[in-house]
Design brief:
The complex is a heterodimer of chains A (367) and B (259). Chain A has 14 helices and four strands. With 367 residues, chain A is mainly α. In chain B, helix 3 (100-106) runs parallel beside helix 6. In chain B, the strands form two sheets. In chain B, strands 6-7-8-3-9-10 form a six-stranded mixed sheet, sandwiched between helices. Chain B has a four-stranded antiparallel sheet with strand order 2-1-4-5, with helices on one face. Classes of the chains: A mainly alpha (367), B alpha/beta (259).
Chain lengths: 367, 259
């Protein structure tokens, strides 16, 4: 009854093509943003339960935000343009290490340490550049073969950041630490501040991504995904469409990688961006919903939060099981849920959400 | 048809081979500006291959294709699109995951000029593009009477409507030459009548030249100004519907000859 667009008339095409054409959706998004930007930080600041310690913030919210951003990037390539990629972890690594290099200055070319926001964005651009290079084969190869080609990127960059000492500023241990996190002269150190920085980045990039996918370039990506021959006959150049998808996707993933390294890890080594990270992002995209920005968030939430719940819940209700059993159970339940979900709804949570909304619009009438 | 027929496209001695198989051998015909030209023939006669040659998807080994006075060598399909050739497909080739409106908007893609940075923010030229081209697409949506399915993903539409959306998408390109590959295949009588009406309307209203492949002879004879008949990759007849209808070779091709 509450969720219905009856009586909301659009009198211009501009009004009809906004992100949330239904008023109730707009109100909902405002509430979510208000909670994320104002309510949550206040709860954290005053340590109101469940924010008694930083656990929820550092172990759940911060990773959720940053991985959502990476999932948005992966979704642009995999979900919107239909190019399967297993190299997302590598692009996160490129973003992280290049942001680190720009943030600490590149002495060989006399580049001083750059401001942190600039470094993060340059990290993203570096990833975009490499993304374009590894996207070139996509013109010739499709599907699983492309996945293998992007897998090559993953292993190549794992090796590069481990062996080429230049990227780690010749650190003997091979691990590097983020430069001082000064955003426009303001030093970010507490978890709340990190959370807010991540939130700002995610909000901006989610908006940009949404604008792209509902614009001309997004339609080109989807056309290539759905029927590449017809797309070409409409005047879309496959190479351009695919490479822009690779570039935009890698850029966003690169920025997410830099944020992950700087805000979440602080000190990291190449292992942080290995093949598992790539697979994790792929799962997020598939489970959340291919071709959906909202789905990226839902997928990230599912992949991150379910394992934590599987650990916390048995402990809370006092089940006498060992930690070993818990970790095994976690794999079993997690795998089963993924299988179940993909059989029941191959288009992921985003589709479920959409179906729910369509039902709600009719409720309480059957049609 | 205009008083002085002007040739829009001419096909001369085109031969297309796939390895040892000759799909089209030495076919010539022309398409005049503003006419509806039908290409008919039994299955495997090379009709679709002919369309694929015209819009640059296949490259004939021999022969010349002259479009708007320009003879071309090898051409990519997207170049053909930018020169104003649009087409629909025998088996619907819509973008299934996109809504009807998005599918039609894709037809405007060549006319949208805003760069990616404007598109990111969806302001200025990008927003202007979106709204301006939306207006044009809405005109076509009105024209083809598909207002009610504007926001429905095309994968969920029934077949007849999908065909109509495909026509809409091709029309959105404002083509000079529209290639229709069996626009009425698998339709019921009512849908066929609608489609015929749309094809005639498109031809009259927008002055679009149409090349049409169709198996329903009633439709072909009623709609088209001139008909070319192919059999086994060769042209066996060319002329007005009445001439073609009474041509003995055409009758043989369709009905078979006693041995």
């Amino acid at each position: 009854m509450l969720y219905r667009e009856t009586g909301q008339y659009k009198t211009s095409y501009a009004a009809d093509s906004v992100i949330f054409p239904i008023r109730q959706d707009r109100i909902g998004v405002m509430i979510v943003l208000a909670i994320a930007f104002v309510f949550m930080p206040l709860m954290m600041a005053f340590k109101i339960p469940p924010f008694r310690n930083d656990y929820i913030l550092l172990a759940i919210l911060l990773p959720f935000l940053i991985l959502s951003l990476a999932a948005i990037g992966a979704n642009i390539l995999i979900g919107y343009c239909g190019q399967i990629s297993l190299g997302s972890g590598a692009f996160m690594a490129i973003g992280a290490y290049m942001a680190y290099k720009f943030g600490t200055g590149i002495s060989e070319i006399g580049l001083p340490p750059l401001p942190i926001v600039v470094s993060i964005l340059l990290g993203g651009f570096s990833a975009a550049f490499v993304g374009i290079l590894f996207g070139l084969p996509s013109l010739r190869i499709k599907g699983l073969y492309l996945a293998v080609a992007t897998l090559a990127a993953q292993f190549f960059f794992d090796w590069v950041f481990l062996r080429v000492k230049w990227f780690t500023n010749y650190a003997p241990s091979g691990s590097v630490s983020a430069p001082e996190l000064k955003f426009f002269g303001y030093l970010v150190s507490t978890p709340i501040e990190k959370y807010l920085v991540a939130l700002i980045f995610v909000t901006i990039f989610a908006l940009i991504a949404k604008n792209l996918v509902r614009g001309n370039i997004g339609r080109q990506w989807m056309a290539i995904r759905d029927m590449d021959i017809a797309a070409e006959l409409m005047g879309i150049r496959p190479l351009v469409a695919k490479l822009t998808a690779f570039a935009v996707s890698s850029f966003i993933i690169g920025v997410a990688g830099a944020l992950w390294a700087f805000l979440r890890l602080g000190t990291w080594e190449p292992l942080a961006f290995d093949i598992n990270r790539s697979l994790e992002l792929l799962f997020m995209v598939i489970i959340g919903g291919l071709g959906s920005i909202l789905g990226s968030f839902l997928g990230a939430a599912f992949i991150l939060i379910l394992p934590i719940l599987l650990i916390v819940v048995p402990a809370e209700i006092g089940l006498p099981i060992t930690t070993e059993t818990v970790s095994h159970l976690q794999f079993i339940i997690f795998g089963a849920m993924i299988c179940f979900l993909l059989i029941k709804e191959p288009l992921g949570f985003a589709r479920l959400w959409q179906i729910g909304k369509e039902k709600l619009r009719m409720w309480p009438f059957p049609y | 048809m205009s008083d002085t027929p002007q040739t829009l496209l001419s096909v001369e001695n085109v031969t297309l081979k796939f390895g040892g198989v000759t799909a089209i051998s030495g076919v010539s015909f022309d398409i005049r500006k503003g006419e509806i030209r039908a290409i008919i023939g039994p299955n495997g006669a090379g009709k679709t291959s002919m369309l694929n040659c015209i819009n640059g998807f296949y490259h004939p080994q021999e022969g010349r294709i002259t479009y708007k006075g320009e003879t071309r060598e090898r051409m990519r399909p997207h170049v053909a699109a930018s020169q104003g050739i649009a087409r629909t497909f025998q088996n619907v080739a819509l973008f299934r995951g996109m809504t009807t409106l998005d599918n039609i908007m894709t037809g405007r893609t060549l006319k949208m000029k805003a760069n990616i940075f404007w598109q990111m923010l969806r302001i200025g030229p990008a927003l202007k593009d979106e709204i301006q081209h939306r207006e044009y697409c809405e005109e076509i949506i009105d024209f083809l009477e598909i207002e009610h399915i504007r926001k429905v993903p095309v994968g969920r539409l029934p077949y007849g409507l999908q065909k109509r959306v495909e026509l809409a998408r091709a029309l959105a390109m404002q083509p000079d030459l529209l290639l229709l590959d069996e626009p009425m295949a698998g339709m019921n009588l009512e849908e066929k009548q609608d489609m015929c009406r749309f094809i005639l309307d498109v031809n009259k209203t927008y002055g679009t030249t149409i090349a049409l492949i169709e198996h329903d002879m009633g439709v072909v004879m009623d709609l088209s100004d001139r008909v070319v008949v192919l059999e086994y990759g060769r042209k066996i007849a060319d002329g007005t519907p009445d001439e073609v209808k009474s041509d003995q070779k055409v009758i043989d091709a369709y009905l078979g000859v006693p041995h």
